[in-house]
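Give me the fold.
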Amino acid sequence: MADDHIQSLRRLAKRYHIRPRLPSDEWPEAHVKTFRNIKALGEYKFDTYSHSISVLSDKEPWKQQTQARARWLTTRAERLFGQDRNEAGWRFGLENDVLRRFTVEVACPRCRARVWQSEIQATWNNENEDYAQQLEERRRMRRPCQCPPNERPMDSYDIGMNTLFDDRAQEFVIHEDLIKSQLPKQGPDRVFGLQNTRSFDKLLSSPVRPDLANTPGDTIADILKTTPFKTQADPLLFPFLVLEAKSEGSASGFDAILVQSSFPIRALLKMQDNLRSNVSGVEGAFSPLVWFLASRGDAWRVYCGHITKGNNEEPAKYDITLLWSGSLLHKDNALQLVLIVDYIMDWAREVYRDSILRQLKSLVTGQSFDQVSLVDSDIFSMRRDISNWIPAPPSTVFDGLTLSTSVVNREDSPPSSSVEEQTMLDIRIPNTKLGSVQSASSANFRFVCLYLTETLIQNFLQVVGGSQNIESKTKKAAQDIVNFITQFEDVLVMSKTDLDLFETLWTGAAAPIGPAKNADEFYVFMEASWYFSSSWEITREVSCLAVNKSAFKILATCANFGVRHKGVENLPKYERHCSSDDIRELIGCIRSGSPWQVLLATISCTLVTIYPLPLRWKEDFPLRVSILGLGYTHFGRVKPFIMKYLKSEPWEPRKNTIVPGREINRLLKQGHKINEIFDMKREQPPKHTDKPWKRISETLFTLKDEPHDRSRCDRCKGSPRSNISPFAHGFLDTRNQPVLSDYNAILVVSLQLTSRGVYTPDSCVFALSGVHELDDNIGLSVMIGSLIQGNLIYHTLKYDVNYSTSHFDMYNLPLPYRSVTGEEELRLLNWIRELQDEDFQVHKEDELRDESSEWNFTRALMYLLRIGHTEKEAALFMTKESAYQYDDVLSKMPKENRGESEKFESFQQVDLRGEQLAQRYSSWIEGKVFLKREYPNQFNYISSLQNLHYITV
């Protein structure tokens, strides 16, 4: 049926002289320069472009942004690839960032010099004309911005929104009556055009010259079609860019996408041509042109629609020429697409908009196109007083935070540019391999949720069951979820409205419209964590499992336990209903914190469970929740569980592909090769357009310097938990007191386990405010050396935001938890050498260590510090007991000392509050007291080792 529809559209397009053209076809003379420029941009290489960039370059401050955008698009496309995203998923994931140039201004708000310029600048068809010369003269007069970095917020909202262009999404294009009935009622995904600025409004409301007027007093708006959409109070004028997208798994190829979009492109060309036909002197200067961007997952194509006039009164041809194609999985292609879109914006701003205004003015004045003089008051680069056109940012103060970038229902957002960091820190950010410099004043807020309702269960179980709908897999998933929910002694219950409220208050992003009703009640399990992402981004995350009661009943039926399940029967007894007021108090508490508090909580990898208060003392005594408490825990429970379904693909293909011999012979006779036959018959994963039960949103905020104050926090005042430390809401180990250096910055070293299973050290300087003393890389190297000599080095772990964490990955680390290792010290010294343009040093072969052992040793060391050991004791123990690995320490030591295991076991009856006995020590003596009381055998053993002197307890 779909093929018949496309064939019908293709025949209709041919009847109306719409022709698809290939890059090899002859280019129209009127657009040769434009097509040549696109071809040139399509040959750029990422590595060559990157080598041409100097971090300290003042001549082209925009190039580093372009490089960062291209790199991020590739990273983003790689993550989306293979996730079976639907069309909306791909569009929301990439489109806004591809088109970013259309949404921001191009001049510095302070000096009005340019902070951006197209790599190849657009030109008029005839450069000898006065208007072409005027454009070139304006360009020669322009200078790149030379403002200090802190006064030049490149490519951000502070520059101002681009008020020249606007867009519409999925609105129907109004076609002629003759063909309207034959076209589907379907609008383009997105259309860009000109905003109805004061210049346009003045011209469109002006009386048209008498020979064009139908009745006396007719204005241009009365006699000319200026928008392809229904009349609006603020119409989109003379659109010039069309976008259409499909998912990577869509049955529609690029040919079908082009056919579907051909008539909207024709309508826009006709609109430009109708305007041109009423203006004299324009033929040699401007010819109608419409850009078309088509995408299918990671693959993108750039087309250009143009008109070829017929000879001997033949009808005009509406040609659509393919100019570029590529995949955003490749950095070269990503860079090329960014540069091409930048060029389209430059063309739209400098050539197209100017041409439309000139033609409209010609209709008013009667002058020919080449005689019209134009002073456009809407081009802000021509204005001296800029205070009136830079719009005030929206009110974004939110619980001590300032919204800077919002990304709704996306897994990632583009990394903060080095220029944005420079603006916050007032220093030049070095581009070095061995270390980073970051501001501590921004944090990414994430909400990650496995969201199941009765209408989503079928889709969820289909994905889990695979293409063969294997019952054992769906049954196992249902059992796991039911067991996870029923293992807790208390269960939070929220309405859909309150769950949406939680997400909105946490991320600042509107919650998606889900299939559940607002009155539906959900079983909700939440954890909040603070950690560094793999790119050193401060991340504050809430992990959530939300299953509404109807979905739980379906899961319990699908689980088919076969025996009486007391947890399912008793679940109503353990329900604790949570109100919106409880949620607001909780979010107000855990969102607050100064940059210094949040940074320390992140270094410590703080993790807390969210549980109801007051506590239940009798099993059958339901209590209304008066406040939500925060429980201390070292291992995540919620995120490891939900990530099994959110990140990993549970479907697995059969190991062997079996094809009957008769079918093989038949296909061989048809010309297929044997490997092609087995590829065709190999089992494929189920084709699901999306995973609606996967609910992820995130927003980047700028933190305000307002510390969390327990005495003024409504949640903390109502919580009976003690507050040992003023940092991390009382969950920070302060045996080593946090110290901020005189530079108002700290040095952080991380341990990160890569996907290849390799331990890699990394380091970053975090600054709390502008570091004015550091004028160059030498100054930064001196600061790092000073921090090393003063032992002002903090340690942490970095996590991939989508990594399926397990209980072996520890949170709530001691601060700091150990000294710098030889490997890390060498890396820091090499970073100093890199900043000073000196050669690196390397380890001698006899000094190299097994990286995997280093990782296990460090994690075991963290555990020993957690139970009260000093660092010297812990290191000696691991040296003496070389057979101990991390797993051994975690499982054997508690049994040897306490007769039980602290290792989290699934599906046992557990306390939702987390580990009530987990310690946060304010002194080393306090740690030793706990070690002696809770681990007596370990205390006696470590006391017996030589060369150790203990404090008598």
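The longest helix spans residues 331-365.
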